[in-house]
Design goal:
6-stranded mixed beta sheet, elongated, about 10% helix, about 900 residues, Immunoglobulin-like, 51 strands, mainly beta, Maltoporin, Chain A, 11 helices
């Protein structure tokens, strides 16, 4: 339909403009983009630095925009045709960059009102990690958390996780999350790497312009324009861990009005595997034993190692908890841990008029990976489809997109994603077989599970050894463990029985019987923005409507296939006014947004800011801002219903819950008998339904050019959070009511409770009744010696001021207090040889999650890349790697260390 729109207004009198683009030393620069401002008409310089284009001088002057990665863009007005124009490009500095993310309009990075990091195309090409998001760790105040090789989340200003649920990630303003999990799988659904023009990261609250989920930051990826950046680019790499990586981008103009591009690629490798055998924190498993205990213990990277707290019928085991031998991550994925990511993204752009452009695009992405949230999930052939339409003019834009995620085929007989925790647990509940290979039954002929047989054998052996050894508990535990392992073993990995049971469970989507994870949610959004520019004030207004249709067939959320998807919506509108004073040296701005939520009512997010620039060229810029932002719990947190054995995770958007703190399990081990009400009164717990979390944040900063070659950016922030959303464990009824003593006794031991029973250990998201405060600062510096050498360095400081949280509360701050980067890069041998290297050091810190809590050790990581270009062949030979010295590099507690990856390859680039 777009292609058949009337062709009008295109009759022009065109005249030729020819010229040459050179660097500061007078050498020709190939590949420079030369465009006529306000149009898609342009050219790229050849190997001699020459360009030629046609321009209409009827409305002179015509302005040429000359841009090239690593150089400051130039605007050259022409009153008439030129045949020998010479353009000299100077190396760009920090203040030459233009960003759009901070205020949703183009502005100089020096005069942005908040802290922003821009990663240009050259820096994107220097990223050595398999996933783009993981490579952002080398920049100031950006933290990354990798659950596996290709699955990384990012955060700013603390409260990091493997999910990025306090920030939003956008590709050309389309959200890249998988809606079922409210998570971005690294750059899976983002812009393909060869199509990335730049990446912008807004630090801190941005709800005033982006909505409530832009609580601690925004990551915006801008793609290349097919009208301006045409040609074919192909990148091929291979490396250790069986790494194979192929990427492609092709863009072509079909006349002056239509342009087409397609980009994408695939990467596969042998993923890292979780091997953390430390004891799970008692915050998550109060009855846990120390690592190595002969009573057994719940280990972080072991699944199915469930515990049974014995009561009086256990004899000498009364009050003790015995844990099953479980299965490692390698056992459950059969020690075959391939990971891959594949995506394809075609788009068509059409100039409807000289000032209006429409773009239709589609993106498909799929992956094999391991994701960590409340459990570890093996993601098999999962991904998303995303369709998008955008129409934009000079000062307005309308966009709409829809994302549909999937988790492999829905056919139970084919591979699909699954929950490792469920898989391990259900394996233990399979009917046991004896030494003769026959199924084991009890005296009544009922099936006996591996778990029941093991615990029964252990208890009998323990009590016998306890008496024989004069009450020596350690000797009894050792004897019982040895006897149970020999006479009542659990399923053994590698056997046919294990394989058959495993395959049956991972293909079974029935909650409580299988481990299949089904994702089938839909995210739809429509938005628009209009810019009013006047001599008095510049105004931006916009709005958006977003709707989730959440579906998991009961494997993750409280939906069922019969009930259909869960619908949830939110919408909002925003406005921003800004004005420059004192000959553009002072810029004041105010913005505000009103959002309406289906589950949380209405919220208002304001932001006010001031930027003062000193110097004739505004080379010293001082900024300050105040923001208030709101955060809703993630969609899966609002509607989750996930039984992980030791607890059941449920949503909390209703009227709340009443129950008892988990201290009850410590004071009354086993909880096997009805308990007096008087004993419980001091342990009562009550939580209302969730409310929006709110943050008030102030920041000050400086960005400037101290000398012609030295650039500095520094900032400090202070944030105070109210209605802070954290997790709590308690003992309660699933309908929200407080259980009676009889219900508590009937439900114990909780980890083996019948799903039909109302009383469980319940985990919810809830608001903490205290103000949570944090602060931080960062500084980055760069010294440019010329194209041959640039030195960069940055330091980040983050601290959680609030220390005394309510018992059982997890804050998920998960951020190193100190982080340091030092980098070098440059071009040698007439720009044919490129190099870059980065050293990163991160201090040790505590990582909290609903899956595992523990200490992340300090890390020192070195990344580097070297490239040599053969211009006549349009080819660059590349070698490089990340974590070259294979040091410990844990980023998520419970996930594997991100080890060494080295590669070699070729980059073909034909304009």
């Amino acid at each position: 339909m777009i292609l058949w729109l009337p062709l009008c207004g295109w009759a022009q009198t065109l005249q030729t403009v020819r010229g040459t683009v050179q660097d500061e030393a007078g050498r020709p620069l190939p590949g420079v983009t030369v465009l006529i401002r306000g149009t898609g008409t342009g050219d790229a310089t050849n190997e001699q630095g020459n360009f030629e284009l046609k321009a209409d001088f009827a409305k002179a002057p015509v302005v040429l925009v000359v841009s090239f990665v690593g150089y400051a863009a130039q605007n050259i007005p022409l009153s008439g045709p030129e045949s020998a124009l010479v353009v000299k490009m100077r190396t760009s500095g920090m203040l030459d960059q233009v960003v759009v993310s901070a205020s949703r309009i183009e502005e100089s990075i020096g005069q942005v009102p908040v802290t922003v990091e821009k990663i240009d195309q050259r820096q994107v090409n220097n990223v050595t990690t398999p996933d783009l998001v993981a490579g952002l760790a080398r920049f100031k105040s950006i933290d990354v958390s990798s659950s596996s090789m290709l699955l990384t989340s990012f955060s700013t200003r603390g409260f990091s996780s493997s999910r990025s649920d306090r920030v939003i990630q956008l590709a050309d303003y389309a959200d890249t999350q998988l809606p079922s999990l409210s998570s971005n799988f690294g750059n899976l659904l983002g812009t393909p790497i060869l199509d990335v023009a730049s990446v912008e990261v807004v630090h801190g609250p941005a709800s005033a312009l982006y909505g409530a989920n832009a609580f601690n930051g925004v990551l915006l990826t801008n793609s290349k324009d097919p009208f301006k950046d045409t040609g074919l680019t192909v990148r091929l790499r291979g490396g250790n861990r069986n790494l194979l990586d192929g990427q492609l981008r092709y863009a072509v103009k079909l006349g002056e009005r239509v342009a087409f591009k397609i980009s994408g690629g695939g990467i596969r490798a042998d993923d890292f595997t979780g091997r953390n055998f430390d004891a799970t924190s008692k915050l998550l498993e109060p009855a846990n034993n120390p690592a190595g205990s002969n009573l057994g213990y719940d280990a972080v990277s072991v699944y199915g190692d469930a515990g049974n707290t014995f009561g009086a019928t256990g004899g000498a085991l009364n009050g003790k908890t015995v844990f099953l031998p479980g299965f490692s991550e390698a056992d459950l994925i059969t020690d075959n841990n391939p990971t891959y990511s594949v995506k394809v993204s075609p788009s068509l752009a059409v100039k409807l008029t000289e000032k209006i452009k429409a773009t239709a695009s589609y993106r498909y992405a799929a992956t094999n990976t391991t994701f960590q949230a409340a459990s570890r999930y093996r993601i098999v052939d999962a991904g998303a489809h995303q369709g998008k339409l955008a129409i934009e003019g000079r000062n307005w834009v309308v966009r709409a997109f829809q994302t549909r995620d999937f988790s492999g085929k829905r056919d139970p007989l084919t591979d699909g994603s699954y929950n490792l925790g469920f898989l391990g647990g259900v394996l233990q509940l399979q009917q046991a077989t004896g030494a003769n290979g026959q199924p084991v039954v009890d005296a009544n002929g009922a099936p006996v599970s591996y778990a029941t047989r093991y615990f029964g054998t252990y208890a009998a052996a323990y009590n016998q050894a306890f008496q024989a050894n004069g009450g020596n508990a350690d000797a009894a535990a050792l004897s019982a463990r040895t006897t149970a392992n020999a006479n009542a073993p659990v399923l053994q990995p590698g056997t046919q029985a294990f394989k058959d049971a495993r395959d049956r469970i991972i293909h079974n989507p029935t909650p409580g019987q299988g481990a299949r994870l089904i994702l089938r949610s839909v995210l739809s959004e429509a938005s628009g923005q209009y810019n009013f520019n006047s001599e008095i004030v510049d105004v931006v207004v916009g709005g958006a409507y977003r709707r989730y249709d959440l579906g998991s067939d009961g494997s993750l959320l409280e939906d069922t296939r019969e009930s259909g998807r869960i619908r949830n919506y939110e919408y909002g509108a925003y406005a921003q006014a800004s004005r420059a004073f004192l000959d553009d040296h002072l810029k004041l701005a105010a913005a505000g947004r009103v959002d309406r939520f289906q589950n949380f009512g209405t919220a208002f997010s304001p932001r006010v800011s001031a930027v003062y620039s000193l110097g004739a060229e505004k080379q010293h810029n001082f900024r300050s801002s105040y923001s208030r932002a709101f955060r809703a719990a993630s969609q899966d947190a609002q509607y989750i219903r996930l039984d992980v054995g030791r607890a059941i995770l449920v949503g909390n958007v209703g009227s709340g819950f009443r129950g008892y703190t988990t201290g009850l399990a410590t004071q009354l081990p086993g909880i096997l008998a009805p308990t007096r009400t008087a004993d419980l009164a001091a342990l009562e717990y009550q939580s209302p339904g969730l409310k929006l979390e709110k943050v008030n944040s102030g920041e000050v900063g400086y960005r400037g050019q101290l000398t012609s070659k030295l650039f500095v950016d520094l900032d400090y922030f202070y944030s105070a959070y109210d209605n802070f959303i954290a997790t709590r464990n308690f003992i309660g009824n699933l309908d929200g009511s407080r259980p009676t003593p009889a219900q508590i006794g009937a439900a114990a031991p909780f980890r083996f409770a019948n799903a039909a029973l109302p009383t469980r250990v319940i985990q919810i998201n809830t608001n903490v009744d205290q103000t949570v405060k944090s602060q931080g600062a960062g500084i980055s510096m760069g010294y440019n010696f010329g194209t041959a050498l640039t030195l960069t360095g940055n330091y980040s400081y983050n601290a959680l001021i609030t220390k005394n949280f309510q018992p059982g509360t997890l804050s998920f701050f998960n951020t190193p207090e100190h982080k340091f980067n030092l980098g070098v890069d440059g071009l040698l041998l007439e720009r044919k040889l490129s190099y870059n290297a980065n050293f990163r050091q991160v201090s040790s810190y505590t990582f909290e999650s609903t899956f595992a809590t523990g200490t992340i050790p300090s890390a020192q990581v070195v990344d580097a890349q070297l490239g040599y270009t053969v211009p006549k062949l349009h080819t660059t030979v590349q070698v490089g790697g990340t974590n070259l010295f294979d040091s410990r590099n844990f980023q998520v507690y419970g996930a594997p260390s991100q080890g060494r990856i080295v590669y070699a390859g070729l980059l073909f680039d034909i304009d």
